[in-house]
Write a structure and sequence with these properties.
Elements: E1 14-17, H1 21-33, E2 39-42, H2 48-55, E3 59-64, H3 69-82, E4 86-90, H4 95-104, E5 108-111, H5 116-164, H6 168-182, H7 186-200
Helix pairs in contact: 1-5, 3-4, 5-6, 5-7, 6-7
Length: about 210
């Protein structure tokens, strides 16, 4: 999901996963009362990844009555893969499972809290947390990308300074001028220069 999901959006496609028909009906009732009608209810977790790929829901709500370790791990792997807001209800849990849920990206992990009136608040919380986490991830990726670009430019400046006897300011000015004339980014010019310098460098004496 590339863009943040608006928490107030009413036309969300919601997938409910629960092997117990009665419990699933509780979630369904809570969602319909809140005005959500685009619902898909699945009662079998076997092959659920393929079902999700086919349905393409905006939000997933999973209810696990008494999950064992293997089932929880499967659900957590699913959470890492689908990159959508996921609300997970469980009857009982321990601190290790809660920590694993957070690490897996489960947006809302609710222990012993499946009540019809709680479904809407949990859904909103899952979407809100997912959006916040997505923004943080994007900002972190952008910061890392920017740092890598700066490192490329610094290396390219060093090459120009040593091979052409330029000052740091002159080296940067040359990179910028070349980028403008070729309608490319400075970091792209820097990367090309670093690659070319590596190809032109004499082989190591040890080789």
């Amino acid at each position: 999901m590339d863009k943040d999901m608006p928490a107030g959006q009413k036309q969300l496609s919601i997938l409910v996963i629960d092997e117990n028909h009665l419990r699933a009906s509780v979630i369904e009732a809570g969602l319909r009362e809140a005005g959500y009608d685009d619902l898909t209810i699945v009662y079998d977790v076997v092959g659920i990844a393929r079902r999700i790929e086919k349905i393409q829901p905006d939000v997933i709500m999973i209810n696990l009555e008494n999950p064992n370790r293997d089932m929880l791990e499967n659900m957590f792997q699913l959470s890492r893969a689908v990159k959508r807001p996921i609300a997970m209800f469980v009857d009982r849990s321990d601190s290790a499972s809660i920590e694993a849920a957070v690490e897996a990206g489960v947006s809302a992990y609710v222990v012993d809290g499946l009540k019809r009136e709680r479904v809407k608040p949990v859904l909103d919380m899952a979407i809100s947390r997912f959006n916040a986490f997505s923004r943080m991830s994007r900002e972190l990726d952008e910061a890392r990308s920017e740092l890598e670009k700066r490192k490329l430019v610094e290396r390219a400046k060093g090459i120009l300074m040593s091979t052409r006897g330029l000052s740091e300011q002159q080296a940067y000015a040359l990179l910028r001028k070349t980028a403008m004339s070729q309608n490319r980014k400075i970091s792209e010019i820097a990367e090309s220069l670093i690659t070319a310098a590596g190809l032109l460098a004499p082989p190591d004496e040890e080789e």
